[in-house]
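Researcher: Next entry: CBS domain-containing protein (Thermorudis sp).
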Amino acid sequence: AGINFSLAAFNLLPGFPLDGGRLLRAVVWRFSGDYLWASRLASAMGQFAAFGLIAAGLLGGLPGWGGDALSGLWFAMVGLFLYSAAVDGYRMARLHADLQDRTVRDFMIATVAALASDLTVEATRAYGTLWNTRVPAAVLHDGRLVGLVGAEQLRSVPWDQEGQTSLASIMVPVSETACVSPDTPVLLALERFGEAGLGVLPVVENGEVVGMLTLDTVLRQLRSRPHGPAGASPR
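Model: Predicted structure:
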């Protein structure tokens, strides 16, 4: 019972990502209306609690402080974990704030090759860049998107079979659920990456492929743009 009480009390410390930290963030967010600032405060409190645990662990493991090295190491490891989680929690909150009003249109690659499914691998050599880019081409059948094909799939075909191998036989099939529209919120699109199991999402508008969205593109643009001021809550 004593151990359970100690764990419950520890979890209520006002530092993210502990329950107490989440409660602190919710209260500050409620009264300030600023989700990012509330997250920063909760993260800072979590880091402060983490440093306290690390210090307690290091001191407790020293001779003459009434502890032992194993217990001290355990406290220090918990502190390191809490610190890492607090920092990551704020990073995720900032990412959420940066993306909350952005759509796929802001990040998609608009220039995309669209190839017929019965086209041979040999014929794609006319599209030289397709063999040397990370952005795949859309594979169409009767004007409908059925898959993606990129350099990895093309290079998997032996050179003496390129003339007999169609794109339909090597493409990565794509279902409609893996597609997004230019107006899809980019936060929703990021969730689709995991659901679809693909490194790229086709962007479809009015039945036509108008671009591709890659996770690398989103992250690269976020790194290159300055962060604006702390904003309102995510929707």
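Model: Note for the record: Residues 1-99 form one domain.
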